[in-house]
């Protein structure tokens, strides 16, 4: 049954005003009857778990893996962009193993981030229809238990990080500050999505040192802090070492600039994160306004204004992505597949998404991950594959040439 909300003295529904904009009160999501009390899951992966495990699985968002994929994709992008820069070019099995470790790390750290978010928002979540049944908000997990859970996840994340070259600790650990403070941003600014972008895009930096390209020259600091020869100590899970010669070679391969490539790729991912989370935030417009939760969707509440901002973000993302390819010396497969594909899919999504429909926003948030993220990864993968094959052919030709020279020398 539908019920009226926010009735005024004349018996008519009153709009909610925020940032000078009127929120549409005929939004179907907000006119439903109050949500039913929490009921344990009866379908899906949560229903198969022991009852005592369910609240912690909900903290992990194990039944909603899209956030894990969004956290993983920047790691994959940077791994594929960095792979052709090493000398010799990184073998496919190393790329695959590195990507698998990043996927495990994304799953763990996304769980830690969600638990931290739920701790900060335990008094706000009950006011928002979509989040009111989260485990901390409904009391199924105490703050102390949630904090303990965060600690366990961070230890597991550290175990994954230690599989990479030790210098990756210096690249990865600073992101924890952003993970811990993002939930505070929505209390003080209408643009917390930019803080989320800085957090979720951190993996765009990590693929380079994971494959031995220390673009900040952090190995000596890692050696001093960790007491190991970080310049040659292998990553336990990847077998990759940080070698200054590798980084130097990467700067000359295809006239590449690894530092610029990493910075531009990171910035591109920040724009992408703001874009897709702006669509996501439209699902909670009215509840967020009533609860005092700020978001970029509230700052640009009308669909027309929001779509103009989304279009601007898409343009920034694709431009920065192309810049990262130029800095990395990428080939046509990247510019056509990744950049062209991103431009087309983002344009399609922005044109088609109905921002006043919760169901439509959710569909594009979930599927946009694979639509846009998939074409970017495919272009990067194709470019890496072509460059790897070309490098292998050049290596074989070089060996054959030197072999012929050795044969001639022996005959003489």
From TrEMBL:
Keywords per UniProt: Glycoprotein, Isoprene biosynthesis, Membrane, Mitochondrion, Mitochondrion inner membrane, Transferase, Transmembrane, Transmembrane helix, Ubiquinone biosynthesis
Biological or metabolic pathway of the protein: Secondary metabolite biosynthesis; terpenoid biosynthesis; Cofactor biosynthesis; ubiquinone biosynthesis
Coiled coil: none
GO CC field: mitochondrial inner membrane
Tree of life domain: Eukaryota
Cofactor: Mg(2+)
InterPro entries: HB_polyprenyltransferase-like, Prenyltransferase, UbiA_prenyltransferase, UbiA_prenylTrfase_CS, UbiA_sf
Locations listed in the record: Mitochondrion inner membrane
Family named by the database record: Belongs to the UbiA prenyltransferase family.
Annotated protein name in UniProt: 4-hydroxybenzoate polyprenyltransferase, mitochondrial
């Amino acid at each position: 049954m539908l019920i009226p909300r926010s009735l005024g003295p004349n018996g008519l529904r009153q709009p909610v005003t925020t940032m000078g904009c009127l929120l549409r009160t005929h939004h179907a999501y907000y006119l439903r009857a109050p949500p039913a009390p929490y009921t344990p899951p009866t379908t899906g992966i949560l229903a198969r778990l022991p009852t005592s495990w369910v609240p912690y699985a909900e903290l992990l968002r194990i039944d909603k893996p899209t956030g894990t994929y969004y956290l993983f994709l920047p790691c994959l992008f940077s791994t594929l962009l960095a792979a052709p820069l090493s000398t010799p070019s990184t073998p496919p099995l190393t790329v695959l193993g590195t990507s698998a470790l990043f996927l495990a790390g994304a799953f763990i750290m996304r769980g830690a981030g969600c638990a931290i978010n739920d701790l900060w928002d335990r008094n706000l979540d009950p006011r928002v229809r979509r989040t009111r049944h989260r485990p901390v908000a409904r009391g199924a997990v105490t703050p102390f238990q949630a904090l303990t859970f965060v600690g366990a996840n961070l230890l597991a994340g550290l175990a994954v990080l230690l599989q990479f070259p030790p210098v990756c600790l210096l690249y990865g650990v600073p992101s924890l500050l952003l993970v811990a403070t993002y939930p505070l941003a929505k209390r003080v600014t209408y643009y917390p999505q930019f803080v989320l972008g800085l957090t979720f895009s951190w993996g765009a930096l990590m693929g380079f040192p994971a494959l031995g390209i220390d673009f900040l020259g952090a190995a000596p600091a890692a050696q001093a802090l960790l007491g190991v020869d970080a310049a040659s100590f292998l990553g336990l899970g990847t077998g990759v070492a940080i070698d200054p010669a590798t980084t130097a070679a990467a700067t000359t391969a295809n006239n590449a600039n690894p530092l610029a490539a990493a910075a531009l790729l990171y910035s591109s991912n920040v724009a992408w994160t703001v874009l897709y989370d702006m669509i996501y935030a439209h699902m909670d417009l009215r509840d967020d306004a009533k609860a005092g939760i700020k978001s970029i969707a509230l700052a640009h509440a009308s669909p027309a204004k929001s779509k103009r901002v989304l279009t601007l973000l898409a343009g920034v993302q694709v431009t920065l992505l192309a810049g990262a390819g130029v800095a990395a010396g990428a080939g046509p497969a990247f510019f056509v597949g990744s950049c062209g594909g991103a431009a087309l899919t983002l344009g399609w999504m922005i044109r088609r998404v109905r921002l006043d429909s919760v169901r439509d926003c959710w569909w594009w948030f979930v599927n946009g991950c694979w639509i846009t993220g998939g074409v970017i990864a495919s272009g990067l993968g194709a470019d890496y594959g072509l460059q790897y094959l070309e490098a292998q052919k050049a290596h074989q030709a070089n060996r054959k040439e030197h072999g012929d020279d050795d044969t001639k020398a022996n005959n003489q």
